[in-house]
Amino acid sequence: MAHRTVGHRPGLPDDPHTSVTAPTPACPVEITLAALHGRWTTLVIRELLRGDRSYSELRAALPALSDKVLSDRLAHLAEADVVHRDRRAGWPPRVRYALTDQGRRLGPVLQALWDWGADATVQEPGLRQPPP
């Protein structure tokens, strides 16, 4: 059996979603972009790719991130089945955040986005350079 991309242009899988004429919520690319939506989301995922974290550990790793935004991002990622919230009984209750299997699969996606962006900023002088 031939690989799914044999006979297709690079980047275009053999899938009916590649023929749509407008974005649809069922499109795999749109699903991925929706999961990564929001400023700080990729950095929260990056921290969780390094291992399970408590809320306070995430706050310490991302000190410029507000409590409200961190809470919103964690709730969004949990709803998208990217993050699992593990609440342990006791006082105070202990909560740990971990990537789901689906969430861990975003690691190579983030790496590909990084690689593309790093390459684009070098080759395209009109693109904004990242802050130092």
What is the element layout, followed by pairings?
Elements: H1 28-35, H2 41-49, E1 53-54, H3 55-61, H4 67-79, E2 83-88, E3 94-99, H5 101-104, H6 106-123
Antiparallel strand pairs: 1-3, 2-3
List keywords for this structure.
132 residues, mainly alpha
Explain this structure to me?
The chain has six helices and three strands, in the order H-H-E-H-H-E-E-H-H. It has helices at residues 28-35, 41-49, 55-61, 67-79, 101-104, 106-123; strands spanning 53-54, 83-88, 94-99. Strands 1-3-2 form a three-stranded antiparallel beta sheet.
| Number of separate strands | 3
The biggest beta sheet is recorded as: 3 strands, antiparallel
Going across the major beta sheet, what is the strand order?
Answer: 1-3-2
Global geometry = globular
Mean pLDDT: 84
The helix count comes to 6
Instruction: State the low-pLDDT regions, or none.
Output: 1-6
Helix content: 40-55%
Q: Which structural class fits the helix and strand makeup?
A: mainly alpha
Termini Cα gap: 48 Å
What is the CA-atom radius of gyration, in angstroms? 18 Å
What is the succession of H and E elements?
HHEHHEEHH
Strand content: 5-15%
Report a brief summary of the structure.
The protein is mainly alpha-helical and 132 residues long. It is 45% helix and 11% strand. A hairpin with a 5-residue loop joins strand 2 and strand 3 (94-99).
